[in-house]
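Supplementary material to the annual report.
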Amino acid sequence: MKRVSLMLGAVLSLAGTALAEKSGGDTAGYAQIVKPFFEEHCVSCHGEKKKKGDLRVDTLSMNFDSPGILGHWKEIMDRINSGDMPPEDEKRPKAGDLSKVTDWITAQLTEAEIALQSSASERVSFRRLSREEYANTVRDLLGVTFDVMDPSGLPDDPDWHGFQRIGSVLTISPSHVEKYLSAAETVLSEALCLDKRPATELVKWGPFDIRHEAWSKFQKEYEARGIADKVRVDVMPNNGALDSHDLVIKTAGDYLVKVKLSGLRPVGGRAPRLRLYVPSLGRILFDQDIEAPENSPLTVEVRVHLPAGRHRVQTMNVTPGPHPDSARARSTGAPRAFTGLNARVPWQMKLTDDYGNVIEPVLLVDSIEWSGPVIDGWPTAAYQRIFFGGDKVVKDLSYAREIISRFAERAWRRPLQAEELNRLVQVFEQAQKLDDNFEVSVRASLLTAMCSKDFLYLQEGNVTTPTQNLTDWELASRLSYFFWSSMPDQQLISLAREGRLHEPGTLRAEVRRMTRDPKAATFAESFSREWLQLKRVGMFAPDGKLYPEYDDNLEKSMIKETTGYVQEVFEKNLSLREFLQSDWTMLNERLAKHYEIPGVKGDRLHRVSLSPEAHRGGILTQGAILSMTSDGTRHRPVHRGVWLLESIIGRPAPPPPANVPPIEPPPTSAPKTTLRAKLEAHKQDVNCAACHLKIDPLGIAFENYDAIGRWRTEEVQNAGVGENPKLDPSGELNDGRKFADADGLKKILVSDLDKFTSACTEKLATYAMRRAPNFGDRFELKAIAEGAKASGYSFQTLVEELACSPLFQKR
Amino acid sequence: MCKISHRVSIGVCALVFGLASLHAQEAAPKVDLKYPFRVGWANEHLPWYQCKTGEFPPHHSDKRIGGELVQADFVHRKGQFRVNKTGELMDFTMPPYGTVNYLNTEADLRDIPLGTFFLFFLNQDPDGEFTRLATMQDQFTMDAGHGFSYRIEEVKVSEGKLVLRKQSPKKNQPDLGQSELEVSAQTRYWKGEQQVELNDVAVGDVVLFNKTGAFGDGRGRCTDLWIGEETHQKVSEIQRAKHAEFVKFRGRPGWVDKADGNEVTVSLFSGEASAYERTYLEGFKVGMDMRVIVANDELRTWHVGRHNERAKLKELKKTAVSAYGTSGFQMTFTVDNMLEGFRKGRVVRLFGSEWKGDSQPYGESLSGYGFDGMRTPELDENVAKEYPTQFPFRTEYGNRDLPWYQLKAGVVPPLFSEHVAFGELLEVDSLNGSGKFQMDRTGQVVSFELTREKARYKVCVNKPSTHAAPAYFEERIASVRYLNTEASLSDIPIGTRCRFHLYQDETGAFTRASLVSDEFSYMANSFLSYKIESIDLTQNRLTVTRGIPEVRDYNGDLQQPLPVGRTFLSLKDQTRLWKGEQPAKAADLSVGDMLFVNLSGEYPGHPSTCTEIWIGKETHAQITEVQIKKNKTAKH
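Predicted assembly:
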């Protein structure tokens, strides 16, 4: 005990002992909450008389601007949380008091962290484009797809509580610099295409090609028999990458892929799912359920962007199913190729029953065709836009200067200073001296512009005349990256140039125009992923033995449900209430099957009405949320509660103390018990109870949903003896309100809709401003939320109110 | 009656059928309402029973013909016999459930000495011919099965005859008539497991016997005589044990009655249902692990080691024994993977606790890897038979409802598109590439014309004795082959029986020959040869096995595969024999000699005989070389 005390003292002594005035955030409550606690439980050992561990808590600094001090307060909170302090032989604090103290410290830490994100103290703030934004910007700037997720793309972006666009988090590393240079070279090369017009090539793989020498040796014989055209590639489910073929791409660009095939769905089962996967790029080119009778194949098409090079393409059927050895899975190695379900090798997997009904979801591929690069016009649209003068123009320095100026203004999302332009033009001139031709020399300047910080970062502020408000140019970018995750379009640029964008009427009209633009789908998609932290879905892949039906398609369908749901609420301008409780959701066939909701077909999302028996509605009982807050083996009520506090209630729980032992499964000889019963132990430990009283009920409400979000009434346990225990989803919130189950909790949350609106507004503001709102933003946030309330809590209205608010125009 | 086995009841009925036939000649057509098809003694107004997939032919649904077994193809489970009296050569094929009854138990064709008389129980094939063998019974089985035996009343050594009195001790019938049985120098006498002499046969001995066929006015001669009831019991037991070992190594055959979910129900085959349980089901218990492997209609499995499927016995139940081939047992088991071959009517083989995953004898599996790889096109998986839907035309093995392949100018016809005919070459016109041959059996004279496109045929290009690598086949194209070389029609001596690959002409007649080849070429190309098992110059007859040369196993050791068939070869005075390049005589032949032969045609009253015999491996190589040189000289 003494050792711990000494350690704590040592840590805190480093912080200095001078009690400083708070320099930021709200320290109100210190005198009422923390000071009495310290006096009752700490000062006797860490006060003026005794300074165990060389610590005095009564003179502890509250300068939360200092990262060092932040660390010390965090350490104190951890010690209290973990029960290290006060020592065991001292009087135990009440759970309620502990909770208040940790809440207070958490609030200070959070506020301090947010203050660090704030750009208020910076003359110019730099917010790096996320890789998603980079790709979108390149697309709108040059009309070129850049595959940011490829190994040759850009590194993944770190997130802060799910948000992947927080300026202070999006740092840049040397590897970024190399990647940006390479990316710019790639996209400019493809966009301008300064070489001769690439020939469009058509590559067609027939069955004899796809199955290589295993089948090609039969080709002549089958041609002689007259059945070569009947040969098809039979792709069994769950058989990995048995069929792979090299695709040689001479010219990077968009390629049209056509696959002619049948997909046989077993009666009452799932359709086979075709996936074209390129391992070297880590990219799925095509992923779709296929349903077409054996004698009536269909042709599916997809346009994909491919870099030059040799790519191994795997043709897979990713539907779960038996996983026999490869010889049994497909017609090869046997002395024949597949020509029909009625001509199968008898020792291979059976595909139809004795009545001809399909029993395994199998794909029968006739051909895969690649044609491209797809050239929509020549010279390319980007070339024509950039070299705007056409063929007859005099290609001199002045023309080059104009080209570079126009391009850089769009790329940098603002007009250039003369000096900035000169520096870019100098690159052109250097290239000319090296005998590069005009276009190549211009390209060198454009490359420089695209590698500049002015392109890679959203810059706000002015070195010479510091201001808290955005310029119209900055506002244009904030709007476009908010709604579209991309650069401003020509109208925004024009309005910015005219200096009219910030005018309330103009701004509101622009917000409404942008909301209606198809690109606004990016907002719903991206915001929902970041707000709800959907990146975590699948992070702990469900155990294949416990959850064999969980597959990649289900995981994607879960995410699609949630993002599609947010989009539906946004597009239809529905109430925020729908996020908490509804009688509908967005389902595709795969997820509907998982939810045991009949009548939904196909991969596309459909708005589906829900009956109470479905036990769904709102985002809280969606598969993505429920599986994300599990650990791959079992559901985690604590994780669910923490997520709810953070994403829905907007009051993040304190971080867990270190070295918390996991909950052990029961001994095999012990009776089976629910996870909830084991969590009850938290209530007995005052230190745990402080937080868990707030967290656990929120998670326990969702006991009826297992680790992959399926409805259940009992908790299946492999260990232990006796019957599987019945589940009890009832609970009591910290404020005494009780609920019977998830529906009951939803009703309580709906009754607190104002609180949810505030939380949601904060999340939107974080997303829009690329920083978390701080204490100083609270009144404006409240006003925005009030505006939404007046409109019946409509989501789109809330978004519009935010975008038109003074807060939105603040740095 | 109800206490005896179904096989015995069949035999009794066979006798009844014989008697009934006699009566039928005198009386009005008889009707037997118990049978919805024609039977041997009644219902002439009804068609014969037509075989159905997945259905055992009911007892008495067959037509019975007595004759002598003269040829057996062990791997494809088919053979030939000569009909008593007429000597007509008849073909038979054993369906999956078809069995051989020999020495009052079940046997395989491999066990049967050629020249033994059998009663063949035959169902109709789709052409209406009686070729589908439900079962066949030797004299021993027919007698022992009915409880009959013979008491020696006199041994006429000088006349080569035994005087016998038929009896049925079980029925207390000591005198069922007297008869004489001819013996010969080739007759074998058995007491216990010992072979004895004629002199050891004594008056009063109780005997059972087998005999040859009886042709013309002749009577069948005794081939084997078993002396004493203990001997009769013993030989049956030995044969039963031998066959059980044979079956267990290859898996108990049966066909699928039902396949649903992961459950498969199989009816097991047997030619001796009364002994099936004790012989084959010992140790089989519900819940036990098993192995199951799919097989074709010839009971040949693909690769036992790689293509077997794990199974668990769920139910074992008895079923009625009122049809040929059924064991009276049906098994239901669960499998890990449902395979295409687990389909109603398809054949599987089951392994119990004795499963070792051994490779099957070389030549028996339908597919193999490395050492197991089939190098003989004849033994390799016949894709036209196994996958008829991959052939958009009729073949010799299926697709009867489709037209035959029609020749296309400039296109070499695909494998299996030909109609195969055999016959003796009558005349040739080498310049015009045409000739005539006399069709086997029917004697029909066919004029043929060689096609310009020639024919594909498969040849294994790596030698089995030197490679353990997978068999590598190449397709060759030829028009005429003689002595395993490309040849012209004039190279083939007139009177040689040839194999003709025929296609239809404009009138639909099979007159267009894409390939003409002699027996020598066919055998050599297939890595097959004959080996002398016994010589009977008194009848100018050789008993030969048909076999594959030695192969190397995975250890690199040479292994002699088991024979794949057995046949008689007949000699005549004109038969030319060759040893090296020198003529030889019949007396030069020895047991164990490897032979290639050419034959004459087979016609009623004129059985096929050898026209030429080449003795020994070296001779075969030499003769081919000589022919190649001859061809070169002719070209120059």
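Residues 1-26 of chain A have pLDDT under 50 and may be disordered.
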